[in-house]
Amino acid sequence: MSCRKTIFPFTAIVGQEQMKKALILNAINPNLGGVLIRGQKGTAKSTAARALANLLPEIEVVKDCPFNCNPYQINEMCNE
Length: 80
Description:
Layout: H1 17-28, H2 45-55
């Protein structure tokens, strides 16, 4: 039995305009510092995060780095 979650398209999320705007802005400019999504059960928090992750391109990261450091930006790597 598979336990994979269905990934709905980001455009299928109805309402939650502030959350969607914050996620899109953070995808455009990660230097904004991230987005904390909170709300009651059933308000599309996980659905929105999965849908956005599905839209974004794959990135190369340092193997086994808990912070997914960029292997090409040595000066910004963590000490892990």
